Every structure is written in structure tokens, then in C-alpha cells.
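User: Quick sanity check before I run a bigger batch. Here is a single chain. Can you write out its predicted 3D structure?
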Amino acid sequence: MSEPKVTKEMMGKVHPYIPEMYQKFVDGKVTRREFLRFSTLLGLSATLAACAAPGTEPEATAVATAEEAMSNIQRGGTLTSAMELQLIDHPARVSWTQSANVMRQISEYLTITGPDNITRPYLLEKWEASDDLLTWTLYLRKGIKFNNGDELTADDVIFSFGEWLNPDVGSSMLGLLSYLNGPQDVVKVDDYTVQLNLNSPNIAVPEHLFHYPAIILHRDFQGDFIQQPVGTGAFTLEEYAEGERAVFKRREDYWQMGADGQPLPYLDEIIYVSINKDAAVAALQSGQVDTMFQPRPSDWQALKDMPEIQVDAASTSQAYLTRVRVDLEPWNDVRVRNALKKCQDREKILQLGYYGEGDLSIDAHVAPVHPAYCEKPIPEYDPEGSKKLLAEAGYPDGLKVTLATKNDESEPEIAQAFKEMALAGGFDIELDITDPGGFWDRWTEVDLGITSWTHRPLGIMVLPLAYTADENGDPVAWNETRWVDDEFVSLLSDAEKTLDVEERRAIMCQLEDIFQERGPIANAFWKRVWRLARTNVKDIHAHPTDYDLFYEVWKEA
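Assistant: Done. Predicted structure follows.
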């Protein structure tokens, strides 16, 4: 099998910047992953991008491996996963990965970001970006059917954008898609083509289309997904009991084909059971469940060496952010915010809270896995500096505060470590740790809290979600800190339209400086995540966002 010859001329017809990016790859100025990411974002197919920048695996080996995998695949069976089952109503309003994992078995996205952190077309056949990045044309695959028999068309995409951009729905997509003035900027070209007319250039449009509230809805959706579980996905919803159990059955007419030439999925059934993490570990050990959602470091430590358990790991931009509300005293004083940041012994927090399985962080919401990350020195633990800043802010005798968070991951260990370290810096911290429901009901309201933020493939994707305002000047839905900095927002806008990775990294350096100088978050480390599963479960992988991509998973009898 010979690879297609991909020329610079061919790449340039897709977008004029791709040949320049390719030359940077050839010259060693960007990595292969960076070239693949940005050439595919600009519309070059993943196949052609990979052919232009081939990896190191010999072709014959890759083909043999694929043929071997195809011959071994077994169809049928039930996959059982332990995961909290939350209240679900409108998909565009979903705030947590668990609910998205339920919906993604039934419904799908225009694009998909895989475990390799590269985004590809999904319900889309392809996309095209204009030279100025102001016009994006989305081409739907033809012949895809919803589970009610209706064909997916541009009308469904137009309807979905309308829900995302409707302020009354309350979707985080509204802040993410701030480059669209409204539904009028989403134009139907024909039954399978949609055009986005942006008010400002943005390179991350394909990434945004896989943001987990962005599932494509049927044009007749009424607002409650559990009551109307209509989607294009590989499974249908048979049962959903919040806090208890969810059951999904295989569709016979799903549009994607498996390696054996038959329609996916390979599994007949998926069952989620809603149990706590301790019970999930016991169930995985005993074989009552096949896998579990988002294992804690202690779970990984307990199970990683068991012969009947397989482990797959991924580095991420997931974090436990200690954040404050800058609209409330004393956190409206930058000196108090910076004093809190100085109370982190980051290495110790990583060890105590996460068994050392992560990457140390500066106090910025940009991670080393992000392509334009700007590396900076890790700040040292400085309790004396903290006390000095508190005294300057009018608290010479220190400050008593309450730190709120939840108890289902590593937050209690991190909170306890922070409490002990901050005491030497002048903070007397009282802990308010509740079950997940008790925290998520108020996560945007507490003045000091630890919030778990999931992975985003690009830094310029997470920042608009959490640190900007809407057109009325009000903080966007997920801006839990209420921090909106004019210089920061202006630089972020520049970064969103900057194609060159090195130029964007220079802007990111400035954004990271602003975070550290006057931002609202303290961040000790970035998480590593794991997929723990029984060894008879095949082709199941860790995803940096903890997404359950189960369509190609199969079980060995």
C-alpha cells in the first residue's frame, strides 16, 4: 500500500498557511503533533496531514497490526462502567463530563478530539476556513440517520447552534462562540452545508465543536434529553435513573463501519451504575464492573499492579483550581489573592494529593500539553511573602477564610495540605467539604473553592469559557471567579486569531504573566488521568478529557 504524495501546492489549496506550517515542521521549529493539529484545524484531512508528516512506524507493521486486530474482534456482550449519574435535561446546559458521557452514547458531535489530542471531522465530512479565518464552511456527511429514522441535515445543525446561542438556555457554548453575534451568523448553504460568519478570526472553531455540551440535536428537540433521547449515535437509551443506573442498546443501522466491515458498535449493551469511588474500586476488582470513570490516584495506586486490570494513562490540562471570587472581599484585593498563591508548596501538594502523578504548574490556566504553552519557572513556597502581602492589605494578624470543595476526587487531600501550608502564611482556613452534589449546586457562588476543571485541547479554548464577559459586560456562565481583565481579554482575542504557534506562544507568555500578577486562581499541578479496565476489555483508552469513547470497544469472551 503506497501513501498519497502530498505536495505544498495541494496543502496550500486547503489553506495558504498550511505550507508555511509544514516548512516549520521540516525545519524542526514545530513538532509533528503541532503540524498535524493545526493543518487539520485548517481543513487538511488527517490522512493527508499524516502522509505529509509520516510517523516512525513502518507501514507494513501498521497494516499487519490492523489486520491482526480485525481478525480478533469479537462482537456482542455488555460493558458495565461505574460512574455518577447526574440530572440531565438540556444537553447544551451540561456542565460535567459524566452527563456528556451518557449523551455521547446516543448523540454525536460535528468534530471529535481523540486520545491523541488532535481534532478530526466526525458528523462533518470536512470543513474549510477562509484565508482570514472569518468564514468557516462545514460540510456534513450525507446519509446519517437519527435513531428516529430522520436524516441528519443542515437544519439540525442550524437548530443546535440556535440553542447554544440562546441566552435563555444558559449554555457555556454562548461564551465559547463569542465570535458569532447570534444565530443569524450561522447560515444554511444547502441541505448538507452550513457557513459560519465570524465577527473576529478564531483558529479553534473545530475544537469548539467538540466541547461537551455541543452534541447535535434533532431539529424538533423540546428541551429534555431523557424524555427525548434522539441522536445519531451508536446506542439508544433504554433506561435512565438519576443516581442509580443507565442502560443503552446497540443500534443496528448506525452509520460508521467497524474494522470487520459491519456497522459499529461491537458491543450489544452499555450499562452505567452510579456508585461511589470506593464501591467502584471494589466492583472493578471483583469483576462486577468492567471499567470506572475518572479513577482517583489512590484507585490507580491500588489497582495498577493487579494482573486482571489494564492501565492506560494520558497527560492532560485537567486541574484542581483553587479560585476566588474577585467581586467579594477580601479577594477583590490583588495582594490577598497573591498572598494565597504564595502558600503553595507545589511539589508537596502533588505528592500528597496525587502521588506525584502530574506536572507542576504556575498559577495560570494554561498547561504544558497546550501547543502554545509558554514555559515559566515554578513559583516557590513563600509563607513569609504571604504574610507581608496580607499586612500590606490590612491584615497584619492574618485572615480567617473558608475553603469549599467536594470529596469524590483528590480535593480533600489538596485542601488539607493547602490548609496546613497556608497557616504559616497567615491564612486560617476552615474546610467546607461536601459530597459532589452539595458542591456543584453552589460551585459558582462560594467565595473560595477548589474546582476541578477538565481538559481542553487548546489554551485558547478554556480561557474564553472561564475568564471573559458577555456582550453586556457580565461574566460568562462558567466565569466562577467573576474576574474580567481588559488587557487579558484583548490579548486573548489576539491569540485566538494568531496562526503561527511561536507568535501565539509570545502572546500566551503575556497572558500567563497577567494570571500570575493579578489573576484569580492558584494551581499547584496538572493531572495525569488513567483508564482502568478489566483485561478482557479491548481497545479502551484513556482520554485527556475522560470521555467514554466506547463505539469501537469490544470484549473478549
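DSSP finds 19 helices and 20 strands in the chain.

User: Great, the batch can go ahead then.
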